[in-house]
């Protein structure tokens, strides 16, 4: 089979105006970026406000492994499958970060014959949203440090600056730095650090805002530092909300692209699900719900991270609810959760599969707590044997769980029709969606609910730093907020080496940080890092542009 990039580059794309017309988007709202990409002006929402919402479908997955799960591939394939059944559907995806593209994981535009295109542009600079977010974040840092230098009128304690600079690239050397060295004219010497752009509060605020005015209000409430007498300093105290809106006025508009089969896709926002809330923007999702009968979206990593945050943070903030959930699993990944090595995945191993199904079972248990109709989708790989597939299908059948095989990677929409038909039936059922916890519970109780009900753990231990952070949260009355867990995606625990479905373990909270602008409390667990590093053999080394101007090396 051809590589992803070969398939993408050999596909003839439709003019973006045609995709827009199919999605019932009038040309007056379309801002073209070449022939195959466009932004959609937010004023279209005034025209759409009386439209009935379509059905919202969330695609999530088991705990990720190096074997691959194919959540984005399933999301895109499902959208194409619904379109093949003559349903009006729009997909909603996150924008890829340059960090994983040039690092280890690669792109985030699907794979095989279930891709969004132009995949090179989407995986790289796209329409500049990531750069705008990076610039906005770093403007805050620059103005804050300038305020310190220019007499410190806000009485900021330089040792209590909590706002970090950012870069959308994996660069471990920037995690902890010292700024303003050598000369007094360089500013106030202090410790600082960088996070990756997709982990910033600016990214979260973009994704949780309703429009530019809402963005301005939210970003003004973001905390940047504390004074010498421990009073919070906000972005609005720096007086730059207007400047930030200028930077973000284009980035806040969703991006319209298409699948290989010309299904409309909105790509907007890209927070990581392990260190942020892991969902595309509310703006794009609500726009798609007004334009179509079915909206297919995804949440990052496994259901313990992305789906939990989708339900408890995004749905709560947007006042929306999912009508159906698809839980993606692969035979290969389940065998890895069953204890075999990556180099043994091509071999049939029923015992490892049966053992690894425990991971899927825990994610099913987690999703069932939100009382939304769901099914399991097996993303089929060429190496899967009939006995392995029938073993997983039989396990689901014995448990009364709906399970279908998805072959959109190899067959496009033809391979996802059965999944699409299943999802349509699920959407006809009554979704009794409920949140996992009440935001008015104590912070520790909300965290414990997630640990016990979603992870399968038993206890939570807090570092001294985390305990001090809790005191600050209660002191300022910031406790009635949703929780955003920052945890390894590879395990239910805070130890990435523990796979499968362990039980009764302890989660170790190292720190808490209030993202007051975004409206949640970030809980850092274990040794989670907000600035990833590059692997020994970065993907960037194998990329380039050939003599014909074609990009190579991205998948």
Question: How would you describe what is shown here?
Answer:
It is a single chain. This protein starts with a helix and ends with a strand. The strands form 6 sheets. Strands 1, 2, 3, 4, 5, 6, 14, 15, 16, 17, 18 and 19 form a 12-stranded mixed sheet that branches. The model has no long low-confidence stretch (mean pLDDT 96). It is of the alpha/beta class. It contains 20 helices and 25 strands.
Secondary structure layout plus pairing:
Blueprint: H1 4-10, H2 16-22, E1 30-32, E2 38-40, H3 44-48, E3 55-61, H4 71-84, E4 89-93, H5 98-102, E5 110-111, E6 114-117, H6 119-123, H7 129-149, E7 156-161, E8 165-167, E9 177-179, E10 190-192, E11 194-196, H8 201-208, H9 212-220, E12 223-227, E13 232-234, H10 235-238, H11 241-248, E14 255-259, E15 264-267, H12 282-291, E16 294-298, H13 303-318, E17 324-329, H14 331-337, H15 350-368, E18 374-379, H16 386-398, E19 403-406, H17 408-411, H18 417-428, H19 443-455, E20 459-462, H20 464-475, E21 483-486, E22 506-515, E23 520-525, E24 544-545, E25 551-552
Parallel strand pairs: 3-16, 3-17, 4-15, 4-16, 8-11, 17-18, 18-19, 20-22, 21-23
Antiparallel strand pairs: 1-2, 2-14, 5-6, 6-14, 7-12, 9-10, 12-13, 14-15, 22-23, 24-25
Helix pairs in contact: 4-18, 7-11, 9-11, 14-15, 15-16
């Amino acid at each position: 089979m051809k590589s992803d990039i070969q398939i993408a580059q050999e596909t003839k794309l439709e003019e973006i105006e045609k995709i827009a017309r199919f999605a019932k988007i009038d040309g007056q709202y379309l801002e073209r970026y070449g022939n195959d990409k466009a932004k959609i002006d937010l004023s279209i929402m005034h025209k759409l406000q009386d439209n009935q919402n379509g059905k919202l479908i969330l695609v999530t997955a088991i705990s990720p492994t190096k074997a691959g799960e194919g959540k984005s591939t399933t999301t895109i394939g499902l959208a194409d499958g619904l379109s093949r059944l003559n349903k009006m559907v729009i997909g909603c995806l996150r924008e890829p970060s340059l960090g994983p593209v040039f690092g280890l994981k690669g792109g985030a535009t699907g794979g095989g014959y279930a891709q969004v295109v132009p995949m090179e542009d989407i995986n790289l600079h796209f329409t500049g949203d990531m750069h705008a977010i990076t610039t906005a974040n770093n403007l805050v840092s620059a103005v804050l440090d300038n305020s310190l230098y220019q007499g410190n009128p806000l009485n900021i304690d330089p040792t209590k600056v909590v706002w970090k600079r950012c870069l959308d690239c994996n660069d471990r050397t920037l995690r902890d730095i010292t700024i303003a060295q050598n000369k007094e004219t360089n500013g106030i010497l202090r410790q600082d650090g960088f996070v990756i752009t997709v982990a910033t509060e600016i990214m979260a605020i973009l994704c949780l805002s309703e429009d530019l005015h809402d963005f301005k209000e939210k970003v003004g409430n973001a905390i940047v530092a504390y004074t010498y007498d421990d009073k919070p300093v906000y972005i609005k105290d720096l007086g730059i909300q207007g400047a930030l809106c200028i930077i973000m006025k284009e980035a806040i508009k969703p991006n319209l692209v298409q699948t290989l089969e010309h299904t409309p896709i909105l790509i907007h926002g890209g927070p990581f699900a392990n260190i942020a809330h892991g969902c595309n923007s509310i703006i794009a999702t609500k726009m798609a719900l007004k334009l179509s009968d079915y909206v297919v979206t995804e949440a990052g990593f496994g259901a313990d991270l992305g789906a939990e945050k989708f339900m408890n943070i995004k749905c709560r903030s947007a006042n929306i609810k999912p009508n159906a959930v698809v839980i993606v699993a692969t035979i290969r990944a389940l065998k890895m959760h069953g204890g075999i090595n990556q180099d043994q995945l091509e071999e049939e191993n029923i015992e490892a599969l049966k053992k690894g199904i425990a991971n899927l079972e825990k994610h099913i248990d987690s999703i069932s707590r939100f009382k939304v109709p769901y099914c399991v989708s097996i993303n089929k790989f060429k190496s899967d044997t009939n006995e392995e597939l029938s073993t997983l299908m039989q396990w689901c059948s014995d448990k009364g769980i709906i399970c279908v095989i998805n072959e959109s990677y190899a067959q496009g929409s033809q391979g996802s029709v059965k999944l699409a038909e299943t999802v349509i039936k699920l959407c006809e059922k009554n979704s009794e969606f409920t949140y996992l916890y009440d935001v008015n519970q104590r912070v520790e109780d909300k965290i414990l609910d997630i640990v016990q009900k979603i992870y399968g753990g038993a206890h939570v231990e807090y570092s001294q730093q985390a305990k001090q952070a809790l005191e600050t949260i209660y002191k300022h009355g910031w406790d009635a907020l949703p929780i955003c867990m920052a945890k390894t995606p590879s395990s239910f625990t805070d130890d990435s080496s523990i796979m499968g479905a362990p039980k009764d373990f302890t989660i170790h909270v190292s720190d808490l940080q209030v993202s007051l602008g975004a409206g949640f409390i970030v809980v850092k667990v274990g040794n989670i890092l907000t600035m990833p590093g590059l692997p020994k053999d970065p993907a960037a080394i194998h990329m380039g542009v050939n003599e014909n101007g074609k990009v190579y090396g991205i998948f």
